[in-house]
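Bench log. Compound arrived from synthesis this morning; before running ITC I wanted a structural hypothesis for how beta-D-fucofuranose sits in the protein. Inputs:
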Amino acid sequence: MNTKLAALSLFALGAMFLGGCGSSTTTEEPAKTPEAKANTTTPGSAAGDLDAKGLKLGFAQVGAESGWRTANTESIKAEAQARGVDLKFADAQQKQENQIKAIKSFIAQGVDVIAFSPVVETGWEPVLQEAKKAGIPVIISDRRADVPDDLYATFIGSDFIKEGQMAGDWLAKKLNNKGNIAELTGTPGSAPANDRAKGFRQALEGKADLKIVFTQTGDFTRAKGKEVMEALMKSPTGSTLNAVFAHNDDMALGAIQAIEEAGKKPGSDIIVVSIDGVHDAFQAMVDGKLNCTVECNPLLGKAIIDAAAKVKKGETLPKRTVIEDGIFDQSVAAKELPNRKY
Ligand code: GYE
């Protein structure tokens, strides 16, 4: 294990002991861009001190496309229940029009606060204008939305560019800066797909012998990841592959099945790196089939409900809270597996 990876893993472990989960958050004072930095807190998962009893919160979720998403939903529902929040939860099944409908219905119901994780980056302005007109504050969680600052109170989520860079740096080192990579991208137009692709390419810059020879969406699902990889393994490019970079663990897990069915060994014949850090990914690392995962913490329930309680009281929140992520490879997987919370 290299020293940087060891340090990151230790940091993540430390954060786990301190915060009861795998990440910490960094907040900043209200700022113009969502990219700026500041202090550190922990997202946590237990009931907090802030009184949120009776708060009417509408949450428009992306869907149930991945293990990450399921854990995110559970975290929000459990935190709401523990703190007596009146949660109205909508699952948009990965469709923006469903999320917009849900937000409109939360406005019509007169909830105190609306929170949502935007399935894609663009197209939110009209509905958020409606929320603003109705005087309902909006919290954006997990994925960025491309909207002016005055349309939301705060945005809580990971730095996806950094996650892509971490995956790229790790893979470049593993392949000695040489090899052919297939990329399975997330939902087109979503912040994590855009930013992870960008960060990954930044890490590969100047490494001429390290090439992305294939890129296609698997929509963040295991089934699609498998389907795309199956077709790729049958194509001439398939036999030239050294590695797969998947924008999430579920697509990597689907790809692993396809690689095996094509008679190759994922984890050795073809190196596999992905993002999320879900339990099944740790199991796949222990089984030697996945090489590395960059953690993206989905346990945002406490942070979202704390933020909702604060905006309801009229407090101004930092425009951006960044969830800090770690990286884990096969060398630490067995030790880490029992500690995983999702
Ligand atoms: O990586 C993926 C999920 O927005 C960070 O969405 C999230 C991503 C996550 O479907 O598994």
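What the model suggests: Residues 3-32+39-158+298-325 form a domain with the Rossmann fold fold (CATH 3.40.50.2300). The chain has a mean pLDDT of 89.
ITC booked for Thursday regardless.
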